[in-house]
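Go through this fold for my students:
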Amino acid sequence: MNATPPWLAPEQKAAWDAFIRMQEKLIGRLSRQIQADSRLSAADYLVLAKLTEAGDRMRFTELARLLEWEKSRMSHQVTRMAKRGLVAREECPDDGRGSLVVATPDGRRAIEEAAPLHVENVRRLFVDALTQEELDTFADLSRRVLAHMERQPG
């Protein structure tokens, strides 16, 4: 016989529901704005942001790990972006089985044009809603949840 799971207390459910609603609405609005401002999808933006932060190139598996994406999703995304000239795939010089994802000049230009508009929207929709003390607390809480998740199986 299956035991009934311990349901969330009303206050816990309210906190969870508010967090999920905020996160979904924020990501949705930012994604639509990126697309409207730059013709990059949110996924394009994430890939290019990580690549340019890492000096324009990164191992395929490391990029997938950083984005928390399955290899198949990463592969499809890189293929779509390569067809548009935003990234290229290269063999990894120190591992014949691995590959690198490289931002092309067009990809670098696209992220350089999109980033200021994205930051403006992040500021308008998120940062400006909170005081600096609240932002610090939010960052601390987020890091604590991330660290907790890293200690959990699966």
